[in-house]
Amino acid sequence: MKDKANHQLNDGLKYDRQHIWHPYSSLVNPLPCYSVEKAEGVYITLESGEKLVDGMASWWCAIHGYNHPVLNQAINDQLQQMSHVMFGGLTHQPAIQLAEQLIRITPESLQTVFFCDSGSVAVEVAIKMAMQYWQAKGDKTKTKLLTIKNGYHGDTFAAMSVCDPVNGMHHLFSSLLPKHFFVESPNCQNNQQWCLQDMQAMTATLEQHHHEIAAIILEPIVQGAGGMRIYAPDYLAHARKLCDQYDVLLIADEIATGFGRTGQLFACEHANICPDIMCLGKAMTGGYLSMAATLATEKIGRIISTADPGVFMHGPTFMGNPLACAVSLASIQLLLDSSWQQNIIKLEQQMIESLMPCQNHSKVKDVRVLGAIGVIELNDDVDVASLQQKFVKMGVWIRPFRNLIYIMPPYIIKPEQLKKLTDAMLASL
Predict the structure, then answer these.
(1) Which of 296, 313, 366, 400 has the fewest CB atoms within 10 Å, i.e. the most exposed one?
(2) Do residues 180 and 232 share a domain?
């Protein structure tokens, strides 16, 4: 029986390698892929038998861990009513209640909600909102965006156009993408390192080009897949002031940072600012379904809606999916009802104590910790396939990229489970 199971597993992995695209994968020379049998709590169990502590929270979204009874129940309850209904001309209570909750917990000025399919689409929607806003105001010159290097905002075309143009993942398409303004990303990891000089490039670009710029788009406080970089809240606060000074909108991409990851419910709260548009995703459903939202101020909604053509020009088929809305509502409430902030503080402290001592290692360029994010940046790129294999043997799931070994675990992780992750990170050096 065991031989038959192993044969099926090997056949399945072989078929996968030959026919299935994985994120950023090759069909000619694919990276090894591990077949998952089940996931529960903070553990991923492979079909080959290994039980792994998940350090990635499934790319940062499974904040409550896997197979959570509250979220399972929310899905099952909603399934008895309806799994999906078109959002054009129809609405439903899960969407209404989720919108109410999002407006309640996000910065006060954000009063309108557009439900999306994914984080990339949320960014597309935010960019379209900014562009249509200025069109509605009769200003057709504001067609550019301003952002900082080392950013990542998604894999669709508008989102790709504001990812890092050199060190990002989309330089292959650079000749096809709209051209926007990029300035150097800040080097200040905290407010003690902050100085006004960090804003010089952004200030100079706005002084010269503000009449062309519709919005600044930033990942607040933490730049995610572009390099896992952390910067000072004062930088974000000053960017907000510059947007007000030069009449430019501010888009906060909180897809990776939202719902507690940085130690605040939203990373904008570190700087005590409110963006004009905010993108949410990833953790919103607790990792159960693809779902995102773009929130905007009442002013943006009103101006777009009172100028030709009188509507916002976007409408995904699965917008406002009832299952996704129901599980999002349950996930957010589960977070708010927990001691999530105290848990994040404990995770942060344990990672600081565990990871910071390796700063002096010859292979290490930098170590960064904020909230439930722990990063070791190396001097050189890693061999992802071989390192991944070693991590699996150590009983952990950590997915490095380029020269970064990092973890963003579920918030429910226990100290001994987190220690297993940090020990594996240190052993990999």
Answers:
(1) 313
(2) yes
End position of a domain, from candidates 336, 354, 381? 336
Q: Are 212 and 361 part of one and the same domain?
A: no
- 17: in domain: no
CA–CA separation, 397 and 326 (whole Å)? 29
Q: Do 233 and 90 have their domain in common? A: yes
Catalytic option among 54, 164, 198, 253: 253
Active-site entry in 142, 282, 288, 411: 282
As a whole number of angstroms, the distance between CA 105 and CA 266 comes to 9
Q: Is 234 a catalytic residue?
A: no
User: 133-152 burial, b if ≥16 CB within 10 A, otherwise e?
Assistant: bbbbeeeeebebbbbbbbbb
- Catalytic, 152? Answer yes
**Sheet of 51-54, strand order:** 36-40, 43-46, 51-54, 396-397
**Overall pTM > 0.85:** yes
Other CB atoms within a 10 A radius of the CB of residue 394 amount to 18
List 2, 24, 140, 337, catalytic entry: 24
DSSP of 132-170 = HHHHHTT--S--EEEEETT----SSHHHHTTS-TTTSS-
What's the pLDDT tens digit per position in 241-282? 999 999 999 999 999 999 999 999 999 999 999 999 999 999
The three-state secondary structure class of 211 is coil
282 flagged as catalytic: yes
Segment holding 17, helix H or strand E: helix 2-19
140 in Cβ contact with 319 (< 8 Å): no
Give the residue ranges of DSSP H helices in 282-361. 298-305, 322-336, 340-355
> What are the residues whose beta carbons fall under 8 Å from the beta carbon of 38, sequence distance 6 or more?
45, 67
Give pLDDT tens digits for 153-193: 999 999 888 888 877 667 788 888 889 999 999 988 887 88
* Catalytic residue chosen out of the listed positions 133, 152, 288, 406: 152
The answer to whether position 192 is within a domain reads: yes
DSSP type of residue 39: E
